[in-house]
Amino acid sequence: MTTVGVLGATGAVGQRFVQLLEGHDQFDLSVVTASPSSAGEAYHDAANWGLDTPIPGETADLTVRATDPDEIPDDTDLLFSALPSDVGADVEPELCEAGFVVSSNASNERRADDVPLVIPEVNADHLGLVDVQRDRRGWDGALVKNPNCSTITMVPTLAALDEFGLERIHVSTLQAVSGAGYSGVTSMEILDNVVPHIGGEERKMETESRKLLGEFTGAEVEYHDAVVSASCNRVPTLDGHLENVFAETRDEPTPEDVAAALEDAPTLDLPSAPDPLVEVFDDPERPQPRLDRMLGGGMAIAAGGIQTTDTGFQYNCLAHNTIRGAAGASILNGELLASDGWL
């Protein structure tokens, strides 16, 4: 078994890591960290558990450690980071310099040119940047990122459709409140309402998607040349980001061509990888968050509403934002790191 830890384990995404790692085929969770105020407490006391399953028994009695390289055992093979980006920006490089491999959900350094930003089914070869990173930064460890929760909903579908010559993508998101964390949006703000702005989200989608779809040359990633425009909205849904995608393409595929390409999206032989990666609905009223967010254990992408336009096609896609869009994505990256011998 591979010994792993979760950084920021008491928060919303950290709890999702703990939940998903229970009974994992390859990973043994032995380290949980949090802020200094929680260090020394039992995990079940430090975490205000908010998920619909009990705290895993093997984790409940673990002693919470401070998020510090000196507090983490040297034999920890892999660390999953649920840290806020401002904390991750300081702590993650220290951990990598100390020799730890970090699979991080935090947004810091996603666009750094020597940090792999990875969706395993889309761009597993971008892990080659680890060698560039270690050479440039002098690290024995490594830092690998998964993308933003809205980006990861859309990009697996775009990768499957790039055979038609993607030129311009417009996306409008309807994002669940859990994406903002426990205290991110108050009930008075979101009930009977839609908030047509999520700070920084549009920029993340517009840049991260092009990096993910780009080509690794052996030394760097050359970004995809498609133009991506995003409008991001917070809606009163608990979990599951629904997105309306409009693609302008070189070719003129039929709706049947688009559906077939999505259904053929590749999957991987990794414990958390769903099969199929994309589930396509004929029903124009699907996908819906409440009905479809747990497809593939929350790791699959749902798509539907495929129509042609004068310049390409449009469709809807959906993913669970704290599973596929956060903790599950980092765990899948960790499985890829282990499979490919990076640990």
Structural class label: alpha/beta
How many domain units? 2
What percent of the residues sit in helical stretches (DSSP H or I)?
25-40%
Report the CATH superfamily of the largest domain: Dihydrodipicolinate Reductase, domain 2
Query: How many strand units?
Result: 14
Strand content: 15-25%
From N to C, what is the helix and strand string? Answer: EHEHHEEHEHHEHEHHEEEEHEHEEH
Instruction: Describe the main β-sheet briefly.
Output: 6 strands, parallel
Write the CATH fold name of the largest domain.
Answer: Dihydrodipicolinate Reductase, domain 2
CATH class of the largest domain: Alpha Beta
3D shape: globular
Number of helices: 12
Give the low-confidence spans. Answer: none
Global Rg = 19 Å
**What number is the mean pLDDT?**
97
Under the CATH scheme, which architecture of the largest domain would be assigned?
2-Layer Sandwich
Terminus-to-terminus distance: 12 Å
3D architecture notes:
With 343 residues, this protein is α/β, with parallel strands linked by helices. It has two domains: 2-147 and 326-339, 3-Layer(aba) Sandwich (Rossmann fold); 149-321, Dihydrodipicolinate Reductase, domain 2. Helices cover 30% and strands 23% of the residues. It contains twelve helices and 14 strands. It has helices at 12-21, 43-46, 57-60, 85-97, 120-123, 129-137, 149-161, 187-190, 201-212, 255-263, 289-292, 323-339; strands at 2-7, 27-34, 65-66, 78-81, 101-104, 142-145, 166-175, 215-216, 221-222, 227-234, 241-249, 278-280, 301-308, 312-319.
